[in-house]
Amino acid sequence: MFVLVIHILNVLHCCVFVCLFLTVTAAEPWPENATLYQPLKEDQILLSDCASSLAVQAYLRMCGLPVQVVCRVNAEYMSPSGKIPFIHVGNQVVSELGPIVQFTKAKGHSLSEALDDVQRAEMKAYMELVNNMLLTAELYIQWCDDATATEISRPRYSSPYSWPLSSILAYQKQWEVRRKMNAIGWGGKTLEQVYEDVSQCCQALSQRLGTQPYFFNKHPTELDALVFGHLFTILTTRLTSAELAERIKSYSNLLSFCRRIEQTYFEDKRLIQSSCSL
Amino acid sequence: MAAPDELFCWEGDWGLPSVNTDCLVVLAYAQFAGAPLKLHKISNPWRSPSGSLPALRTNQKETISRPSDIIIHLRKQKYNADYDLSAKEGADSLAFISLMEEKLMPALIYAFWVEPKNYVEVTRRWYAEHMPFPLNFFLPGRMQSRQLEKLRLLRGDESLEAGDELEKELYREAVECMNLLSQRLGSHKFFFGDSPSSLDAYVFGHLAPILKSKLPNGKLQQHLKSLDNLNNFCTNILLLYFPRDGRETTNQKPSTQSEGADFDNVPNKRKKQFLSALVALGAMLSYALLTGMVSIQHVHQEALEEPPDLQDLESHHHEDEGDD
């Protein structure tokens, strides 16, 4: 009971924290002390959250905006949308890549300015492809594959909490994700079908990338950040089965694309290699 | 050749071959690919082999429900509308289909099932009027709660309710999605070249209901009407591939569709007649039993058996009294 109360207080505290900073102000320059919040790297964060967080970090680095990564046990409850990651800039809190891109654009930083209308339409479409297929597949494997859920997802997700809260929160999360899968028609899929979807998605991305350095030729866009976040995380994360990473490894241009972004934007910090090993 | 696959779809209205997005996608793809399907346009999801619509019953008696799976099945049967697409165009199709599922679908659910005025005046009324008798009382409501649940899970917000803020956000995303589609289509007749592909089927399925339905809160429709190329795109597909439904549905649908409709209507009528007869008979019987038959029988039996007992008792009493 005591643990539950602490947890509720925690959530309440963070809601207040977020509400205080949600007041929208006019465009100000990017401050030095911008922070990005995510769950604990070593023993809490899950594949899908790690991928989303890495995508935002890649995006901010491509924009040349400094951000300090802070790990918090209750990052999920601090986020205004309940999703990982979120950034705290000046007196504003923004979560998820889409809104963060909008936010930086309002501050005068944009990667997709040079694209024409058709290209921008295609970029947005491919970003939704990644969200719709890769992210959903990651969630499916994390929570709907029993082996992964038992061995990795539930223990890691609930690691900061003591029993019984840990079990309650983990099963609650699993239950929620499974209901979502049923609602979008993924409930009846087998693991093999999900891998097949991942392959199909990678095939599409690989085709689109072709031999270019980035999806829209010379300069990276938010699409590159998103794709990098997901592919790199899948490639560097150890799961119960290596099948997911194997599916990506058959597309050599995607592999060199990941390596290129890692070298260009993450060279200074080696910590990324070890950051997201489950 | 083996018997054709059978496709079960929601009925059409508002000048559309079907009122449901998923059904429209499958119908349009089948038309584009020239797949010979035996069509059942029904308004009772319980008559579908999978319990939901659309559903495809293959000639091996398998049942497929998801539109994407149905399209894959048709493709395997060599009815492929995407045959001429390059690998990159195939990738683009996949991307834009995802875009619609993520950005347009939530707004569609909101507009048809969650927005209170639209739901009460159009959606619920349509389904209630078209469904057979006992189902029309509870199925529309159940469909609504399922759609609301889906929207809640998609948005990751358990307590999501209809409201201005939600509407604004969903419609903003939908409007952006429509603009992107419009930009991608440009002045072409179809998305890739001169013949329609699966992406065209998906776009048509998502946009045609917005364009043709007469919702009281028609903000999406207003915006769509301002995008001329998407507007023409939908009208064109209706004219070219669904000429019968394109004309307003005052005249009866002829040929293949009417076969299906007749086939479905007659048993429906019979079922209705049978049901009402059954209800009437039940009412009559219960009335008769409650008021007359039971008590009469009981009284009758008691009347036959009890009086002697009573007499006996009385006589015994008399005897007892006499003894005393």
Automatic annotation (TrEMBL), chain A:
Localization terms from the record: Mitochondrion outer membrane
Pfam families: GST_C_6, Tom37
Main location: mitochondrion
Signal sequence interval, chain numbering: 1-27
CDD domains attached to this UniProt entry: GST_C_Metaxin2 (cd03211), GST_N_Metaxin2 (cd03079)
UniProt keyword Nucleotide-binding, yes or no: no
Entry GO CC: SAM complex
Domain spans labelled Metaxin glutathione S-transferase: 199-261
InterPro entries per the UniProt record, alphabetical: Glutathione-S-Trfase_C_sf (IPR036282), Glutathione_S-Trfase (IPR040079), Metaxin_GST (IPR033468), Mito_Protein_Transport_Metaxin (IPR050931), Sam37/metaxin_N (IPR019564)
Keyword terms, alphabetized: Acetylation, Membrane, Mitochondrion, Mitochondrion outer membrane, Protein transport, Signal, Transport
Gene Ontology biological process terms, A to Z: mitochondrion organization; protein transport
Domain of life where this protein originates: Eukaryota
Keyword Disulfide bond in record: no
Ranges in a coiled coil: none
Limits of the Mitochondrial outer membrane transport complex Sam37/metaxin N-terminal domain: 53-173
Complex formation: Interacts with MTX1/metaxin-1. Associates with the mitochondrial contact site and cristae organizing system (MICOS) complex, composed of at least MICOS10/MIC10, CHCHD3/MIC19, CHCHD6/MIC25, APOOL/MIC27, IMMT/MIC60, APOO/MIC23/MIC26 and QIL1/MIC13. This complex was also known under the names MINOS or MitOS complex. The MICOS complex associates with mitochondrial outer membrane proteins SAMM50, MTX1 and MTX2 (together described as components of the mitochondrial outer membrane sorting assembly machinery (SAM) complex) and DNAJC11, mitochondrial inner membrane protein TMEM11 and with HSPA9.
Family: Belongs to the metaxin family.
Record function comment: Involved in transport of proteins into the mitochondrion.
Listed name of the protein: Metaxin-2
Species for this entry: Sphaeramia orbicularis
From TrEMBL, chain B:
Pfam families recorded: GST_C_6, Tom37
Main location: mitochondrion
BP-aspect Gene Ontology terms: mitochondrion organization; protein transport
Localization: Mitochondrion outer membrane
Bilayer-spanning residue ranges: 274-296
Keywords associated with the record: Isopeptide bond, Membrane, Mitochondrion, Mitochondrion outer membrane, Protein transport, Transmembrane, Transmembrane helix, Transport, Ubl conjugation
Annotated InterPro entries: Glutathione-S-Trfase_C_sf (IPR036282), Glutathione_S-Trfase (IPR040079), Metaxin1/3 (IPR017410), Metaxin_GST (IPR033468), Mito_Protein_Transport_Metaxin (IPR050931), Sam37/metaxin_N (IPR019564)
Start and end residues of each Metaxin glutathione S-transferase domain: 175-237
Assigned GO CC terms: SAM complex
Residue ranges constituting the Mitochondrial outer membrane transport complex Sam37/metaxin N-terminal domain according to the UniProt record: 23-144
Tree of life domain: Eukaryota
Subunit and interaction comment: Interacts with MTX2/metaxin-2. Associates with the mitochondrial contact site and cristae organizing system (MICOS) complex, composed of at least MICOS10/MIC10, CHCHD3/MIC19, CHCHD6/MIC25, APOOL/MIC27, IMMT/MIC60, APOO/MIC23/MIC26 and QIL1/MIC13. This complex was also known under the names MINOS or MitOS complex. The MICOS complex associates with mitochondrial outer membrane proteins SAMM50, MTX1 and MTX2 (together described as components of the mitochondrial outer membrane sorting assembly machinery (SAM) complex) and DNAJC11, mitochondrial inner membrane protein TMEM11 and with HSPA9.
Its biological purpose: Involved in transport of proteins into the mitochondrion. Essential for embryonic development.
Family assignment from sequence similarity: Belongs to the metaxin family.
Protein name: Metaxin
